[in-house]
Design goal:
The longest helix has 24 residues, at about 60-85. This protein is an alpha+beta fold. It has 3 domains: about 5-85, no CATH class; about 95-360, Endonuclease/exonuclease/phosphatase (Deoxyribonuclease I, Chain A, 4-Layer Sandwich), CATH 3.60.10; about 365-395, no CATH class. The chain contains 9 helices and 16 strands. Helices cover about 25% and strands about 25% of the residues. Strand 15 and strand 16 (about 355-360) form a beta hairpin. Helix 8 packs antiparallel against helix 9.
């Protein structure tokens, strides 16, 4: 660390010209650890800055300003060092390793393919995925051997790795992916290096017991501090050599949803050009959401993918951290079906591994019933017409029965139908005359007008 001691007193220590005390010393030590993880050029720039003794009676305002300036200075150089990381242009070729005898995959007899996704966190085995700055290659290898023991126990055919390192100063100067493949008995391995500096080389990887075809590595074009990418390769389904499918191991941005959408669009563009069924393995750094513009929803909608119980988080969370979340996923095309899905609860990094058994569906499932032969129908009719049970058993055999000729009856001469006569006209009966009976009117008495 760049700590310059001015006086004999342990409290009189200065970092980049700022006095350290009990209140700000932990913050500066953290800042220095972040600075030292940058390339060596930054250390030279810091050494060029003049370090002088400050006044012991530094005011609170000037101390705050110096802290802000130092943090801004460190963040700017960290961003520059990571954003200017070079990307290797050499073609990606799978590494073939001599691993000896490969374990027998009993699930192949049932037509099942077993895949696994695991974030190895650069060989750091802790809850929060914090990678120590100084660590020996011996310590890293001990942790990777524990990871390989899990791979041997689960016995997957293809494994997608994230935050996997190549040989660099930070990774102990050995290839993590090849080390895992060799101890886990995987003869084929590829590593897509998406971050390459003078001290770091890491990205996404695939290790497999099946031969790889047409592998490729892509780094996302999205601008940001965290460079991510994905690797893709084609495989042949076990037992069906004509069936080719793609497997993708990817790692999305850790927090920005807008950048994650752009990264999903880049993946969709590449996968559509290859025109094969696809399996996604990766750390997507986001949970499931039914929102139309959610990154995972976009991916499954555009590529017509299948997901295992997207609504369920209990028992399926993959990241511990401060709160458990389900951010590691496996997606498959509609042609492929989930036979089983489980989370491996072994602590190998800040992520849990996920294992899925996949089953291939028929390309054109039969939707119509096959027509039955005519001879069988005739036999069945004869069997149902006979009453004796013994005759029924003999008639239900599938051998066709010869038809016996039957004598036709002589046709009966048809007589011409009789002519119909016109219907008789009904004559209404004559009405009898009704005789009117004279009625006698009652005699009316006129009042007399004579006077009495």
């Amino acid at each position: 660390m760049i700590i310059h001691r001015i006086d004999s007193s342990p409290k009189m220590q200065y970092v980049m010209g700022v006095k350290l005390s009990k209140t700000n010393a932990p913050w500066y030590c953290t800042c220095i650890i972040m600075i030292e993880r940058c390339p060596a050029e930054f250390v030279h720039i810091v050494q060029w800055t003049t370090i002088a003794k400050r006044n012991e009676f530094m005011t609170k305002r000037s101390r705050t300003l110096s802290i802000l300036a130092t943090s801004a200075f460190a963040c700017v150089f960290m961003w520059i060092s990571i954003s200017m990381a070079t990307y290797p242009k050499e073609p990606l070729k799978p590494t073939e390793l001599n691993v000896g005898k490969i374990p027998v995959a009993k699930h192949h007899k049932k037509g099942i393919l077993r895949v696994m996704s695991l974030n190895v966190a650069h060989g750091a085995m802790n809850r929060f995925g914090i990678v120590p700055l100084f660590r020996s290659a011996k310590t890293i290898k001990k942790r990777l051997i524990k990871n390989s023991a899990i791979l041997l126990r689960e016995n997957p055919d293809i494994v997608g790795l994230q935050e996997a390192d190549g040989p660099s100063w930070w990774s102990g100067r050995f290839h993590h992916v090849n080390f895992l493949a060799q101890h886990g008995l995987f003869p084929y391995a590829i590593l897509g290096i998406h971050v390459k500096t003078k001290s770091k080389r890491y990205g996404a990887a695939l290790i497999s017991r099946l031969k790889m075809h047409d592998p490729a590595s892509y780094r996302f074009k999205s601008v940001g501090m965290f460079k991510k990418g994905f690797v893709i390769s084609a495989f042949k389904w076990p037992g069906k050599p004509k069936m080719m499918f793609d497997v993708v191991s990817t790692h999305l941005h850790p927090s920005n949803v807008t950048i994650q959408r752009n990264q999903v669009n880049e993946i969709v563009e590449v996968v559509r050009k290859r025109k094969r069924p696809v399996i996604f393995l990766g750390d997507f750094n986001t949970t499931w959401s039914d929102h139309f513009a959610a990154p995972l929803k976009m991916l499954t909608r555009k590529l017509n993918l299948r997901v295992y119980k997207s609504w369920q988080n209990k028992g399926l969370y993959t990241h511990k951290g401060f709160r458990p979340r389900r951010i590691d996923w496996i997606f498959v095309s509609k042609r492929i079906q989930f036979a089983s899905y489980r989370v491996v609860k072994d602590v190998v990094s800040d992520h849990y591994g996920i294992v899925a058994d996949l089953k291939l569906l028929p390309k054109n499932p039969p939707t119509t019933i096959k027509p039955v032969k005519r001879s069988v129908l005739i036999v069945n009719k004869q069997a149902t017409s006979t009453k004796a049970p013994e005759k029924r058993k003999a008639a239900t055999t599938k051998t066709p029965v010869a038809k016996t000729p039957t004598k036709r009856k002589a046709p009966v001469a048809r007589t011409a139908p009789a002519k119909r006569t016109a219907p008789a006209v009904r004559v209404a009966p004559a009405k009898k005359p009704v005789q009117k009976v004279p009625t006698s009117k009652p005699a009316t008495t006129k009042p007399s007008t004579k006077a009495s």
